[in-house]
Design a protein that fits this description.
This protein is an alpha/beta fold. It has two domains: about 5-30 and about 295-405, Alpha-Beta Complex (Aspartate Aminotransferase, domain 1); about 35-290, Aspartate Aminotransferase, domain 2 (3-Layer(aba) Sandwich). The chain has helices at about 5, 30-45, 55-75, 90-105, 125-130, 150-160, 180-190, 200-205, 210-215, 240-245, 280, 285-295, 300-315, 345-355, 370-375, 390-405; strands at about 15, 15-20, 20, 85, 110-115, 135-140, 165-170, 195-200, 215-220, 230-235, 255, 260-265, 320-325, 335-340, 360, 360-365, 380-385. The strands form five sheets. A seven-stranded mixed beta sheet has the order 4-10-9-8-7-5-6, with helices on both faces. Strands 13-14-17-16 form a four-stranded antiparallel beta sheet, covered by helices on one side. It has a two-stranded antiparallel sheet with strand order 1-2. Helix 5 links the parallel strand 5 and strand 6 (about 135-140). Helix 13 (about 300-315) packs parallel to helix 16 (about 390-405). The protein binds pyridoxal-5'-phosphate. Pyridoxal-5'-phosphate binds near residues 88, 89, 118 and 120.
Length: about 400
């Protein structure tokens, strides 16, 4: 199969130039199978889920639950009850930041986050700490963008039981480094501290088995893994999800309601108030099937490593260009490269590249504290997917050199 033919969005021109889409870490393109299912269900099964008895409602519910089951299988989660469907990573983290802290965070306690977090895995914890009189602690990265397990261990020792949760990315959206999350979970669990893994990037590039990782929460968004926007996942261990109070109140999440007292639905619906995005949830089935297929293709995986290595080597040759996140082992780096160029503003380079057909992200990448640590306010990011090609990387390097020359 020619993978590019499955992604119709790739076959278009922008400003009269062939599109080169290098912004996959922000949102990935969707395969034909996802687009077709979305369209078919919009006609044949457009109804509300878990409510009416009629045919269309039953179809919609079946597809919604099929999406949940696809997610469960993809994460190797033990049961349906572990999978809460939300609108995205941000919504999933906010849910935990609200409900977990409501039950378990007290004045004087601490939440530990990584220095390389996306704002989505930082601000909700900061807000929760403010609500409860707790403190946000930060585990720093070194010059290469790596975490030290020894530093993590000493944080726990110094905190003397006051750290109540660790929230850290599986893979940073700026550095593109696969963090040692299994080891992080092991260290945290030695101190009885649960761990939330932000898998927004991790789910796309690494095989994830939440039971093997033993993480307490794992969250991600559908739109970064070939599904539509508006669907996200919160995996949680049952003991935590059972112990946490509900998030939003409303339809779906109740068992019985009276003016005096409401009892809540069992998991997972306890956390799914209101009408969900059933179309996007249903599309997780073909989206995750495409992700699985691409992950199992030795050819595509090899090509991704070649593109990463090519870009790292070629970018390194550009005078005054600095790459952020260079781990000791290159195999821990995904094809996501953030960089800055001395004497040329990232936003200006991105605008020139755009006019040449190259879609790249520029700015603070929703990680202002991390950029500040590296003395930057704005960087460029090229993030690739298996449907990108080495030829695109070559033409990108030529375009980048031209753009820099125009600005210097
Ligand atoms: C590591 C990471 N966390 C969280 C998010 C937020 O995801 P969403 O906007 O889909 O909720 C992103 C998106 O870029 C991300 O890369």
């Amino acid at each position: 199969m020619d993978i590019r033919e499955e992604f119709l969005a790739l076959d278009q021109t922008v400003y009269g130039r062939p599109l080169v889409y290098f912004d996959n870490a922000a949102t990935a393109q969707r395969p034909r199978t996802v687009l077709e299912l979305q369209q078919r269900l919009s006609v044949e099964a457009n109804a509300n889920v878990h409510r009416a008895v009629h045919h269309l409602a039953a179809e919609a519910t079946d597809h919604y639950e099929a999406g949940r089951e696809a997610v469960r299988a993809f994460l190797h989660a033990p049961a349906r009850e572990n999978i809460i469907l939300t609108s995205g990573t941000t919504a999933s983290i906010n849910l935990v930041a609200h409900c977990f802290t409501e039950r378990f965070l007290r004045a004087g306690d601490r939440i530990l986050v990584g220095e390389a977090e996306h704002h989505s895995n930082l601000v909700p914890w900061q807000m929760a700490c403010q609500r409860h009189g707790a403190t946000l602690e930060v585990l720093p990265v070194d010059e290469n963008g790596e975490y030290s397990l020894a530093a993590l261990e000493s944080r726990f020792r110094a905190a003397e039981g006051r750290i109540k949760l660790v929230a850290i990315a599986h893979i940073s959206n700026v550095l593109g480094i696969v963090n040692p999350v299994k080891e992080i979970v092991q260290v945290a669990h030695r101190y009885d501290v649960p761990v939330l893994l932000d898998g927004a990037q991790g789910i796309v590039h690494e095989p994830v088995d939440v039971q093997a990782l033993d993480c307490d929460f794992y969250v991600f968004s559908g739109h970064k893994i070939y599904a539509p926007t508006g669907i996200g996942v919160l995996y949680g261990k049952k003991e935590w999800l059972e112990a946490m109070p509900p998030y939003m109140g409303g339809g779906e999440m109740i068992e019985s309601v009276s003016f005096e007292k409401t009892t809540y639905a069992p998991l997972p619906l306890k956390f799914e108030a209101g009408t969900p995005n059933f179309l996007a949830a249903a599309c997780m089935v073909p989206a995750l099937e495409m992700a699985r297929m691409m992950a199992e293709s030795a050819e595509l995986q090899q090509a991704q490593c070649e593109m990463r290595d090519f870009l790292l080597e070629e970018l390194d040759r550009v005078e005054g260009l600095r790459i952020y996140g260079l781990p000791h082992e290159r195999s821990r780096k995904i094809p996501l490269i953030s960089f800055s160029v001395e004497g040329a503003f990232a936003g200006d380079i991105a605008q020139i590249l755009d006019k040449m057909g190259f879609a790249l992200r520029s700015g603070h990448l929703c990680a202002e504290p991390l950029l500040r640590r590296f003395g930057q306010t704005s960087v460029l990011r090229a993030s690739l997917a298996p449907y990108n090609t080495l030829a695109e990387c070559e033409s990108f390097m030529a375009a980048l050199r031209r753009a820099i020359n125009m600005l210097r």
